[in-house]
Amino acid sequence: MRWPLALALFLAGCGGRGELYLEALKPLPLVSTGSALVQVVPQTRRAVVVTPGETTPGALTLTAGARLARRVPGTELVAVLTGTPREPKLDLVDAFTGAVETLEVPGYFDTITWSQDGQFGVLAYASGAASGLVARNLNEVGLFSVALRTVTRLQLDTESLAPRAIVFGPEEPNRRLVAVTLERGVAVFDALHPEVAPRRISLRPPGSTLESSVAEAVFARSARWLFLRASNLDDVIVVELGPEVGAPVSASLNFVAGGQGLTDIEAPPDTMGDTVLAVYAASRDAWLLDARGIQDNAKRLAMTTSARSVSLLSGNRALFWDGSSTSLTAWDMNDGRSGTVQLDGTFSLPLVVPSLDKAVFALPSATGGAALSTVTVVEETNRLRLKLQSIQLAQPFTAAAFDSATQRLFFTVSNTATLVTMSLGTLQLSEVSLDVPATGLHYLPQGDWLVAEHAGTLFGDVTVLPAGSTDRTQARRYRDFAFTDDLNRPGDAP
Amino acid sequence: MTTRLFVLLGALAASSSQAAWPTLAASAGYESQIFTSQAWELVDTNDFLPMLRVGASTSFEVGRGFLDVGLSFTTGASRESAHAGQVATELWLRGVELSGLYRYPVLKWLEPYAQVGVGWDWVTLTLVQSSRLSQTVSNVAGSGLLGVQLPVRMGLGGGRLPFMVFDVGGGYVLRPDYAFTAMAPVSSELPESIPDGAVNLGQLPMHGWVWRVLVSLRW
Predict the structure, then answer these.
(1) Per-domain residue ranges for chain B?
(2) Nearest-CB residue to B200 (from A17, A43, A484)
């Protein structure tokens, strides 16, 4: 009678947990494509795809070590930086077809920046990022061609430490210029000819005492000019780029002066010729500067209050603002007409809709409470009139998404579970009530879906409903989807 | 005290034997199923799922041995914390089984046996510290066991006296993988809340070795 008892005690004492489920889940932020939401969960090695209209999210298997997920603009693809410092990879997830491609990457990069058309991405290091490697050459970048599915290593070979920003030039027949801004200058290469060495343009040539660094770069729409704004410098640095294809692009520098306190630059429409628009806070003016440096061609707009930022509207018009003041100014760069309006309060980053000549400003504490102000530029004979219309909000504005095709703005306000749809053309409002407040919104144009993201859990909590719908019965809530496929991990454990 | 109880039960059984009832048995005991798949680690630190088993059977004499045909019910549960304490998981297994056990008395007090069974199980898996995702999945099960029974006659004298039977056995339980493909929140906060989607947690293998210790009363 003793041996069964001994066997029972032996068996009861056996068994123990492996390490598969000991690790805390730390999903990466949600990424929206045109038709779906994708959440990468590095610990389960899954990309969880939430597709509106489907009851259950799906899961795709990724390479281990996911650390960054970014949508490829204009596509259903999500690029995920994965792998280890010794074997870095890039997983390309197609949220529509469910395909996952894994590419070799020539470095354990930290960031990825896409061209607006989604054809190219530049992988780069971030200075100070913890990678697990003892030494990294931060002057290396990787050029990812989405069409060719190749990642090419490029050596910038500059005196600067690490890239600050990456700016893509306009599409040209035979080349696609890319500017990498660095502390001491900028490097320009051709994405269609990555084998050609980048052109290095230094702002601090040997012997120079200039201590400024590049703060902003903007390509002209013709790709002939690259405009740079540098710290502690009031001049716009104009780089004239040569037409070379298949050889390092030639570059010549010019410093073009305008006002004082340069805070923003913008490339005007083609109709304005070889010019650059510059905003100066200290001298309270904006300048349309001739890129070739011909001072007689420059145009100046004097403003009553300082502006720090500029956005282009339709035609030749531009809108100037400063988030710390209540004043807005519009300017027609062609004929010089302008107009100013005072908002009821200060605001955060506006939504500018050039096609409607309209901008939307969220005012957290306007007179009478929170408000959403829309400003429409109206043509008048001798001036531009800024027509101000305000929407009163019960609480400060929290999140928004925009449908550019039908000009609808979707937004929520804090501490309420209501989702508002506003037609920017007519300012018509409609509301739908969700179960819990939303902290983020995503618009999915394919299928015309709106996704409200809720706070409070790491594991995913979203409500999906037809965009603009006021019928909550059409909505569906997906919760805790980060656990998707958690039981299926053993089969692909390394 | 124990001796008095045995004598009383023996007397009751002896009086009832006059009615020529078939041999009946009632059993209860501890059963442990052993799950060694990695997926099991999400629901339990230990590979063993402790279970309570109760059942009843009747016997038929077949050759020199006996065939016990029985119906049993098993239930067992586990609760575990996973993902560094981010979520607690609860698993509850219930099942009914129809079994046939052939025992062969080698000695008066030693009866080796072989058993096969077929049953239906229900498994409920719940992720507690989330939105309480839960799903109950049911499936067919089959088992095969080998073991020994140690019958001890209760009481003295002739007639049909009951036996206290100690049963130790081990075997294997076959089940299809349990597909927890539609884990959904158990309840929503509001009566007219927005309908919830489900979560596909994946497949949980539920086949494995089993061992048991039962005590039966056979009369």
Answers:
(1) 2-17+36-218
(2) A484
